[in-house]
Structure formats: C-alpha cells, structure tokens
C-alpha cells in the first residue's frame, strides 16, 4: 500500500467530427472528480493493449465502435487518488451514434466550453485547437 505508486495506463479517445467538433463526457457520481469533464476512456486492464482498452471503453460507455484511431500524445499526471499515464488517441472513423450507456452527460464541442475539466486534460485543449483550426482546413 505504501510503495511508490506506479502509473496506471489510461486509454482516452477524442472523437473528431469532420467540422472539428470533439466529444466530451462528464464524470459520474462516485468517481474521483465527479462532475468534471473529460474525453471518454478508462483504465487499461492487465494483459490488454491500449487500443483494445480504448475500443472496449467506447463500446461500454457510448455504444460506439471505433474503426480506427491514431495515437496522438501521452501525458502523465499525479493526482491525490492516482498517478496516471494518459494515452490520447484521435479517431475520425467510428460506427454508431454516441449514447449515454452509463448515465453520464456528453457534449460535442467546438472550442471547448464545458467546465470544469480534469486538470491533466486542460493543456490538451490548446494543442487540439492548433491541430483542428490551424493549417489544413480539414
Ligand atoms: N477518461 C479520461 N480520464 C482522464 C482524462 N484526464 C485525466 O486526468 N483522466 C484520469 C482520471 C482518472 O484518474 C483516470 C481514468 O480513470 P477512470 O476511473 O475514469 O477509469 P475507469 O472508467 O476505467 O474507472 P473504473 O470505474 O474502472 O475505476 O484518468 C480524460 O480526459 N479522460
């Protein structure tokens, strides 16, 4: 219990629509940081690949099948409740309309306006804006 905590791997997915909107979800009651907004995802289970965890979480939480996703960036953060290593993926290619299967709120956002956001996710928004709104008009 008292050993230095090793980081927990977390798979996180950013669904991106052709117009650049991204999907955020609100953490449910009973979890650390309940009510905070985040990109959907969750902890990688033992013997599971990060991509497999990502796909599993999206099916469980949203009923969405990710067809392809590219690894975007990694962020480590030490919270009072856990030391996490977040693996962010971007997907523009999924099947199904997101549904709230675990009772959480979801919102498609252009410039992200929902608050509060999980602390480790905040820096990502600026990087994401550079990706979405600079350069290629995709
Ligand atoms: N999904 C997600 N988690 C994030 C983000 N930013 C961030 O710091 N985290 C942290 C919060 C949590 O400590 C951890 C995710 O763990 P979780 O508790 O939500 O995962 P889970 O759904 O597998 O939970 P569990 O009920 O199985 O314990 O990653 C983010 O943008 N999305």
Overall CATH architecture: Alpha-Beta Complex
Main beta sheet: 4 strands, mixed
Reported by name, the CATH topology is: Nucleoside Triphosphate Pyrophosphohydrolase
Provide the structure class. alpha+beta
Number of helices: 2
Give the overall shape, derived from the CA principal axes. globular
CATH top level?
A: Alpha Beta
Beta fraction of the residues?
Answer: 35-45%
Main-sheet strand order equals 4-1-6-5
Please write the string of helix (H) and strand (E) elements.
Answer: EEEEHEEEH
Write the layout of secondary structure elements.
Blueprint: E1 8-15, E2 22-26, E3 37-38, E4 41-43, H1 50-62, E5 65-78, E6 83-95, E7 106-109, H2 122-133
Parallel strand pairs: 1-6
Antiparallel strand pairs: 1-4, 2-3, 2-7, 5-6
8-OXO-2'-deoxyguanosine-5'-triphosphate binds at residues 10, 12, 31, 38-43, 77, 79, 82, 84, 86, 118, 120-121.
Could you please describe the fold and organization of this structure?
It comes from Massilia terrae. This is 8-oxo-dGTP diphosphatase. It catalyses: 8-oxo-dGTP + H2O = 8-oxo-dGMP + diphosphate + H(+); 8-oxo-GTP + H2O = 8-oxo-GMP + diphosphate + H(+). The structure is a single chain. The protein is of the alpha+beta class. It has a single domain (8-133), classed as Nucleoside Triphosphate Pyrophosphohydrolase (Alpha-Beta Complex). Helices cover 18% and strands 36% of the residues. A 4-stranded mixed β-sheet has the order 4-1-6-5, with helices on one face. Strands 3-2-7 form a 3-stranded antiparallel β-sheet, with no helix packed on it. The site of 8-OXO-2'-deoxyguanosine-5'-triphosphate has 17 residues, from strand 1, strand 4 and strand 6.
